[in-house]
## 1
Amino acid sequence: MMGPYVTPRLVLVPDRIPLRIRMYVWLVTGVWC
C-alpha cells in the first residue's frame, strides 16, 4: 500500500538520508504496533 507512494517520494525528495531513517522508524513502529 505504502510501497508505490514511498517510491516516488524518495525520488522527489533530495534528502535520502533523513527519509531513509523515517522509513526505518515507520517499519519498526509498524512491526511493534
## 2
Amino acid sequence: MTRRTFSTAVHGLRPRSLAAAPLPASHTQRQARRSLQVRAASSDEQPEPKVTPGKKGKRKGKETPEVVKLDDFNPYSIGRKSRAIFDDVWQQFTKLSSPTRSFNMEQLGSAGDRSEFETPQAAFTTVLVAGATGRVGRVLVRKLLLRGYTVKALVRKREGMEAATGFPSTVTVVNGDVGDYEACKAACEGVDKIVYCASARTTMTGDLKRVNEDGPEMLAVAYHDTLNAKARRRKQISSRAKKEVVKFTREDRLDEWQVQEVKKGEDNMSKVRSKYRAKQSRRDEATVTINKQQNLVFEGTLYSMRGSAEAGSPLRMRFDESLKGCEGLLVRAKTDGQPYILTLTTSENKTYTARISAPADRFANNRVPFNAFRPAEAGDPPLEPVLVDRIGVRFEARNRTLQPVLTNLGSSSVLGDLDSNKLDFRFEMEYIKALPGGEETDFVMVSCAGAPLWDRDSEAAAVRDKRVGPLRRGEAALRKTGLGYTIIRPGPLLEEPGGYKALVFDQGERITQGISCADVADVCLKALHDPLARNKTFEVCYEYTPEAGLAMYELVAHLPDKANNYLGPALATLEKNT
C-alpha cells in the first residue's frame, strides 16, 4: 500500500512519521500561524489529507480559528459597492414622491452627455449683448458664459449700471446708449456677433423710436464700420462689405446705361379708340441722364394704356467680380411714388424681374433678395446669380379708366382727353450694391409678435401696435444693412423656467400664446451658429391649439431638447429673406 505524504510548504501539515516527535511550544505556535496563512491561500481543488479516525478529535481540538486581517479588505471596491447599494435605495425612495433621480457620476464621463454646454465655436466667438440687464438679456448672458463665449454687455449709463453689478467679472461691461453712435462703436470693437435684446421701458414716442426703431440700425452701422476699419488696417476688404454693382460717379456709366425699348400697349378697343390710341402711342418717350449729383435719372412719358419703358446696362463689376455667393441686391433710389421693376438677364437670354417701391421725394434703400426674382417666361428655372450679365429698370403703365374717353366719343375733345390720360414717370438711382452671403447670422434681434390678424380691432391690440410699429421699422432697417440677420418675434414674455413646453415656430402673425424668457434666450443662443437661422424672421411661442378657422395651417411644435438642436428642424420649413 502506497503511503502518501504532503509537504508543509503546500498545506502546512507535518509528515506522519514525525507526528509523535515532541516540538517546542514556540515552534508549534509559529507553525500553526504559518499553516493558517498557507491554507487560506491554497486552491479549493487540492485534495484534503486523510486523517486517522482515532486521532480526529485530537486534531480538531488543536485547530486555530481563521483570523481575518485588515489587509484583506479593498476600501475602494467596498466604497463603490456601498455607493451603488445606497444609490439604488435612494432611487427607489425618490420615485415615490418626485420625478427626479440620482446618477452615478462615474457613468457620466462621455462627452455626448455634456453636449448641452459644449459649443466648439464658443472659444473663438465674442458676443455683444445689447440690453443685457433685461429679462431675456440677463438669462442669455449666463447661458453664453456657461458655454465658453466671451461676452460684452452694452448697458445704459444710469439704470443699467446698477443691475450690471451682478454680472460676473468675465463680462466686459460697456456703458452707453443704443442711440449713441460712439458708444455703439466702442462696444463693437472685437465683436463677432451681436444679440439685440434692448427694448423701450416706456411707451413714449421718443423712447420707442430711439430704442426700438433707431437702435438696431445704429448698432449694425457701428458694427459695419468697425469691421471695415479692421479690414483696412490689414489692407483687405471685409467679408461682410457690400459689393459695388452700379455707381454713377464713373464717366463711362452714361454710355453703358441706355434706353433699351419703349413698348406700345395692346388693348381690345373699338376702332375709334384704337385710332386715337395709335396716334398717341407714337409720342411715348423715355430718356436716361446723369444729373449733377452723379445719379442716374430715368424719366419719360407714356400715353399707351399698357405701355412700358426700360433702361439697362451690361453688368460690369469692379475687379471682374460676379454675383456668385451673393444673396441679393441693395438699390438706393428715389421715385415718384409709382412702382418700378428691376430686371436681370442671364447669359442664356432669360429674364427675371422683381418689383421695387421706393418712397417719393427721398432716397431709400431697397433690399431685393435673389429669391424674389421671378422668371418672365413660365417654365424657366430659378435665377442663378452667377449667370447674370445685364441689369435694368423697367416702368410699366398702370391700367387706367377710359371713362373720360368713352363719354366724349364723337366730340372734338377726344384728343384732349387722351392727352390728360398721359403718364409721366421719374426714377432716380444713386447706386446698386450686392449683399454678401454667408453661413451664419451676424445680428440676432429680439423683437415682439404683433396682435393676431383676427384681433386687430381690439383695444389691447391698439396698445400693442404702438410698441410693435417702431420695432417693425427697426427690423426693416436691419435687413437693409447687409448683415446676416435673425429676427425673433416672441409672444408675451413669462417669468418661468424654460425647457418644459413645446415651442411653435411660425410666420404670419397668428400666434397668441406667451413664452418664457429662458426659452427665448435659448433660441437666441442656438441661432448664433445655425445656418438655417440666417436671414429669417419668425414668431415663437408655446404650443397651442389654433383658433377656429385656422386649422388649415400646420403649426409644427418642437420640444427644447438638451441632447440635440431643435432649432434647425423647426426653421427648415420657414421662408428665407423675410
## 3
Amino acid sequence: MSNLSIQEENKKTSTSIIRTQNQHLTKYFSSLTSPRTSIVHQYNSNQISKHTFDENNKQSANLINSNEKYSHELLNRISTLWFGSNVDRQQVFNLLKENQIQCTILSEFIARLAHSFSKHIIDIDDISIRKTMLYQALELSQIALKSNENCALCHFSYGHIIGVLLNINYFSLKDKLNEASLFKYHMEKTIEFDKNFYEAYAYLGRYEYTAFNLSLLERKAASILGYKIEGNLDKALEYFHIAIKGNYDMIHTVYLLMGKIYQKKKQYDEAKKYLNMCIQIPIQRKSQINIVDNAKILLKNKKIENLSFESFICHLKK
C-alpha cells in the first residue's frame, strides 16, 4: 500500500474516532479539571460549611486561573491532535517534551487517551496501519506510566497495548515470552492499585487460560529460554468471576472462556449458563461477532444439548 493510501486510510479512521471519542474525552477531562464541581456538590448537600465552601472556592479559582487553566488548554490541544493524522500525533510527543508540567491529572489523562485510541485501532483491517498506530499509542502510554508508576490506568493502558501487539506481531519466541510476562506484570499492577479494575481481571483470566492450553513442546521451549509458564483454570475462573462485575468490550470473551472452562471440567450446566450469557449481550464491535458465533457453536455440542440427561444421571449417582 502506498504512503498516500495509508494517509487516506488514517484520515478516515481518525474522523470516525473523533466523532465517537472527543465528546467523551472532553467530558472526562472537564470532570478532572473542575474542582468547583465537587465543592458545590458538597456545599449543597450540607457536607461542608459555608466558610469552608468560600475558602475552597477561592483556592479553586486561583488554580483555574493559573496552572490548572494552562493544563486544561494544553491537554485539550493534545486530545485534538492525537485523533488527527500521523503528523498531528507526532506533535503530541513534541508538546509533551516541551511542556514538563507538574499536573496530577496528566498521566491518567494521557493513559486514557492512549487506551481509547488503541481500542479503535483493533478494528482496522490493514495490519500495517494498525501496527503503526499501536506503536504510537504504546509510546504515549509509556510516557503516562513514567509520569506516574502508581496509576492503575497507566499500567492497564500499557499492558493492554502490549497484549494487542502480541496478537499481530511476528515476535521471536523469546520476545513473545518476554512481552507476555510484561503484559501479566502490568495487569497485576493494575489491580494492585485499583481492586475494582474489572477489565484487568479479565485479561489475567485469559492469560491463565491461554497458558494452561499451551502444548508440552511450547512449555519445554519456554523453560529452555528461562520462562516458567503454568496456567491454572481455577485461577482463571477466579479472575473471571470478578471480571463479570464490570461492563467493557471484552465481556463477551470472558463469558465464552468461562463456558469453555466449565465444559472442560464437565460442569455442563455452568457451561451452558455462561455461553448463553455471551450470546445475550448486545454486539457493539466487529471483533465481538466471532466470539458470539463461537459460543453458539459450542452450545450445539451434544454434551451441552443433553444437559437434562447429564443432570439426571448425576442425580442417580448421589
